[in-house]
């Protein structure tokens, strides 16, 4: 009996499926539904299952024999990883590529996604075995030109395939038997089993599901490149992010050479881990000493510049906060922040006005985290507040002082996590004479760090007085 295709309406924004057309989706989008044809599930031969194809094709008996197991009886062991040859990429991944994992990497056009992937592919091909690079956007000649520029001598075990049909990609994987597979990009892939065009939600979802099955069944780590929207978010349905094991985002300022790779999801390592690369003529080069890179200009800093620190992933990172205040000439005062959330900046300004008596209602305020980094967390609050105070009062804080701490709405300073590791990193660099931090952190670290005085402050006013005393 031949099963007929059924009509289903899919939201292009979130991937929600409905048996009938809807004017507004549950995600709030209007007129976002498109009609697609889908076949009912075939329980006798369902290739979408996560088990091996040989088991899935065994018929309904395979489903009858499937049974849950006791969690206490499930074994565990260390994941086998592949070294990509790029130390910063391995750090973000949690120590290398896990075999059978599915990794999604996104970023703006021209930021360096294809460059870092072709470098990693060439390194793995030199040391481990066959690598298959599938491109749906560029020709083989274009990829060869990039590889000649960034990879040096190209290994014979690196294979290229310019194809967008996922079934042909699966066939090529069976022929080459790679240990690493790259798909550039998922929005160009399509399955001949669906009638919709490449890039459609159903096509993207079906191709991602096929790649997951392919990687899990054969133990192949798969790298998927994805496009981003104008707002910088990952294009396509959210189901892809839930499907993959690791989500990486590549970003940076085009006017600067630094590129930052951040892990937003990682089932085999720490989340919020970052890696920093420097873009050069011969490709991307890992930056080992991040603190020196972000503090490059702090030695000549004047008023409005403060050195601070955060803890990203598994390591401390020292950076520079810059602030500028200027009289507002027309209308409302402007508030502009790069690397700091606008809502957080407005809160800090309100605390400065209410608790420290600094009126900024007629002042334009600009805040910038040097280097294009967008830190997470609240440990930069005190540094932002003191940088604004320094610019408004015309008082330089000094290049030998590091400031960390979270500011509450009452003006009190709350302790920050991993303060000990941050202070030890500052002591290791040897460029600083003091650290201003919350009083609770200073008391906990008393006597542990030698050669670097710790100045504890219980509130914002105490920190300001400490700055005035040091002048």
Provide an overview of this structure.
This protein is α/β, with parallel strands linked by helices and 471 residues long. The chain has three domains: 1-46, no CATH class; 81-288, 3-Layer(aba) Sandwich (Rossmann fold); 292-470, 2-Layer Sandwich (Ribosomal Protein S5, domain 2), CATH 3.30.230. It has helices spanning 53-56, 60-65, 87-93, 113-127, 140-150, 166-176, 201-218, 239-243, 290-294, 342-355, 381-393, 419-429, 439-444, 460-470, and strands spanning 6-11, 17-18, 33-38, 81-82, 97-98, 102-107, 131-135, 158-162, 180-184, 222-226, 246-251, 258-266, 274-280, 283-286, 305-312, 315-327, 335-338, 363-369, 401-403, 406-407, 413-414, 434-438, 454-457. β17, α10 (342-355) and β18 form a beta-alpha-beta unit. The longest helix has 18 residues, at 201-218. The radius of gyration is 26 Å and the shape is globular.
Short description:
With 471 residues, the chain is an alpha/beta fold.
Features:
471 residues, alpha/beta, Rossmann fold, Ribosomal Protein S5, domain 2, 3 domains, nine-stranded mixed β-sheet, four-stranded mixed β-sheet, 14 helices, 29% helix, globular
Distance between the termini: 87 Å
Number of domains: 3
Mean pLDDT: 84
Helicity, as a percent range: 25-40%
**How is the CATH topology of the largest domain named?**
Rossmann fold
Strand order of the largest sheet: 8-7-9-10-6-11-12-13-14
Instruction: Tell me which oligomeric state these chains represent.
Output: single chain
Task: Give a count of the beta strands, DSSP E runs of length 2 or more.
Answer: 23
Enumerate how many helices there are, as a single number.
14
- In the predicted model, the low-confidence regions spanning at least 5 consecutive residues are 52-64
* CATH classification, class level of the largest domain: Alpha Beta
Rounded Rg = 26 Å
What's the name of the CATH homologous superfamily of the largest domain? P-loop containing nucleotide triphosphate hydrolases
Structural class: alpha/beta
Largest sheet report:
9 strands, mixed
Coarse shape: globular
């Amino acid at each position: 009996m031949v099963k007929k295709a059924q009509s289903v309406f899919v939201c292009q924004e979130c991937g929600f499926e409905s048996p009938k057309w809807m004017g507004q989706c549950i995600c709030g989008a209007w007129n976002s539904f498109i009609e697609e044809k889908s076949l009912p599930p075939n329980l006798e031969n369902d290739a979408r299952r996560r088990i091996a194809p040989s088991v899935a094709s065994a018929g309904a008996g395979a489903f009858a024999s499937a049974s849950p197991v006791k969690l206490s009886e499930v074994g565990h062991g260390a994941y086998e990883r592949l070294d990509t040859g790029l130390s910063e990429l391995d750090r973000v991944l949690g120590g290398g590529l896990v075999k059978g994992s599915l990794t999604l990497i996104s970023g703006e056009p021209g930021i360096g996604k294809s460059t870092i992937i072709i470098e990693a592919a060439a390194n793995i091909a030199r040391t481990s075995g066959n690598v298959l690079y599938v491109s749906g956007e560029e020709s083989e000649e274009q990829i060869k030109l990039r590889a000649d520029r960034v990879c040096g001598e190209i290994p014979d075990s690196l294979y290229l395939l310019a194809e967008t049909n996922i079934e042909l990609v699966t066939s090529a994987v069976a022929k080459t038997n790679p240990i690493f597979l790259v798909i550039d990009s998922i929005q160009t892939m399509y399955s001949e089993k669906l009638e919709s065009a490449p890039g459609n939600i159903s096509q993207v979802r079906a191709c991602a599901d096929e790649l997951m099955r392919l990687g899990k069944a054969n133990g192949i780590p798969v790298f998927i490149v994805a496009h981003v929207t104008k707002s910088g978010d990952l294009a396509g349905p959210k189901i892809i992010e839930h499907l993959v094991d690791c989500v990486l985002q590549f970003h940076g300022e085009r006017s600067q050479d630094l590129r930052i790779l951040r892990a937003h999801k990682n089932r085999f390592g720490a989340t919020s881990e970052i890696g920093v690369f420097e873009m050069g003529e011969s490709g991307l080069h890992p930056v080992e000493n991040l603190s020196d890179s972000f503090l490059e200009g702090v030695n000549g800093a004047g008023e409005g510049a403060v050195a601070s620190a955060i803890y990203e992933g598994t390591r401390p990172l020292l950076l520079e906060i810059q602030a500028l205040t200027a009289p507002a000439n027309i209308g409302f005062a402007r508030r502009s922040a790069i690397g700091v959330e606008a809502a957080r900046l407005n809160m800090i300004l309100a605390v400065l006005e209410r608790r420290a008596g600094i009126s900024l209602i007629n002042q334009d305020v600009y805040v910038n985290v040097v280097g294009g980094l967008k830190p997470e967390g609240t440990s930069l609050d005190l540094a932002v507040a003191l940088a604004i105070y320094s610019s408004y009062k015309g008082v330089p804080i000094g290049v030998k002082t590091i400031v960390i701490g979270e500011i509450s709405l009452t003006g009190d300073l709350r302790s920050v996590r991993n303060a000990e590791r941050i202070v030890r990193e500052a002591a290791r660099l040897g460029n600083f004479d003091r650290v201003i931090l919350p009083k609770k952190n200073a008391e906990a670290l008393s006597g542990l760090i030698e050669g670097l005085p710790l100045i504890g402050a219980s509130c914002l006013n105490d920190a300001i007085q400490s700055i005035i005393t040091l002048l």
